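#struct-pred

JT: dropping the chains for the assembly here, can someone run the whole complex?
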Amino acid sequence: MSILKRGAFGDSGRRITLEERLYGNELSYIVITDGTNVRALAPTRDYKARYDGDKGPKTGGMGSYSPAELNEEEDSEIRRRIVEPTLRGLKKDGIDYSGALYFGLMKTSVGFKVIEYNVRLGDPETQTQLFRMRSDLVPYLHSAANGNLAHLPEIKWDRRKGVSVVVVSPGYPDNTQTIRFAYDFGELGSIPHLGVFYGGLKEVGTGFEGRGRMLTLSILGYNFTDANIILYRGFLSRLDFGEWRGDIGLRPSLVERGRI
Ligand code: GLY
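RK: done, full complex below.
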């Protein structure tokens, strides 16, 4: 291709990147690793698009639910085809890695594909995952750092379903506005089974100033339908500031009710 020849347009255009467009549902597969062994966090679905129905610009994450749909066979496929080769690759490159390793995957019609890696936990996956975690996270992190994760069992999870919804300021993410408002968060913070995780929010005078992803509300329910009803009707509808997606966890809730 002539555009790849040096000098045709100066140096620009010498290299082009073709990206495969992937269709399917996203899955965040996050593990704690000591570099050899892994203990997986519960599979979780993140919603990157700003608006309902996965429309609009990409964000840092508008909500999550867990456990995401993943059967044992798929779980082994991810470990065998993606996690283990990644750890081998890190070793081969001389990288002594331990800690949290995030695999952002897409489940396509031809299997799981890796969209991104992060060397950290996920946001807003963590809010939902840690809310459901019934093992103590600290020994896992400690053992990962000390190279003896093999001695710990798989992590235990609450059987209830977790849903988290992120409350953002108007215009997020392309034209993010800063807003000021008053709200009694003390009341929200005292409700059992409701997690309130603060982000782009600070106290200013007697109120708050918020920008971007301001806070995340997380809930556990005996099924996704309950979790959604409690979170959306019980709490989000009471907020008089911010915006959020209205369809977080909707798909598994429709599956539960036999609608899809
Ligand atoms: N939720 C996406 C991320 O943490 O990168």
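JT: nice. The radius of gyration is 21 Å. The first strand starts at residue 8 and ends at 11.
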